[in-house]
């Protein structure tokens, strides 16, 4: 096996340090939980707002308020064994060649489930932000959306919009690249509905490509032993996953009993 590269954490830009100091000096005026933000997180808001102090401070204030409402402090202790068992989202064991965490979303293992959508979004947040805070991943991610075997019943515009909205508002400068494959008119239709929830810089990182092109991109992104067999690599650790339709039927039985 190839020697694993370390997950990396982005450096704090030198030119962001005066803004960070100014934000810290505001203290509770920004939010009573300001101390929970790292210098890097504060800097990312500033960079995302094109180094505009006022806009960055407004976003930080909104995010701190959201974290209080979201019970963010309890996130790392949350257990998501049931969601992990579905296999719809998993993380490759090694980072990309540039040190980013690589997340794989398998659309065929998901179906709309509105009552459990908030929990799914919370799982997304823990998978991205929580792994970084625990030293198990990078502060930046590459996302691969596999649409192999997808049917119309798997389409979930509400989930896509909600996830895009949460990450765009509260986790700037996290997405490094996102690949959707194989592409067709359904994928581009969903993208047309989701794109308004993303800033232009983030939207520019989303790529719709063929399965063959995805294999070429993976060769650039990582090594064969960190690439699932289903994507042309040799890594055999991909979760088996559960049939989402059967899961929903089981849940309906439980709710009616």
From TrEMBL:
The lineage of its organism: Eukaryota, Fungi, Fungi incertae sedis, Blastocladiomycota, Blastocladiomycetes. It comes from Catenaria anguillulae PL171. InterPro entries: CRAL-TRIO_dom, CRAL-TRIO_dom_sf, PI_Transfer_CRAL-TRIO. PANTHER family: GH16843P. Signal peptide: none annotated. CDD domains: SEC14. Residues 79-239 form the CRAL-TRIO domain. PROSITE patterns: CRAL_TRIO. GO terms for molecular function: phosphatidylinositol transfer activity. SMART domains: SEC14 (SM00516). Residues 222-242 are annotated as: Disordered. This is CRAL-TRIO domain-containing protein. It holds the Pfam family CRAL_TRIO.
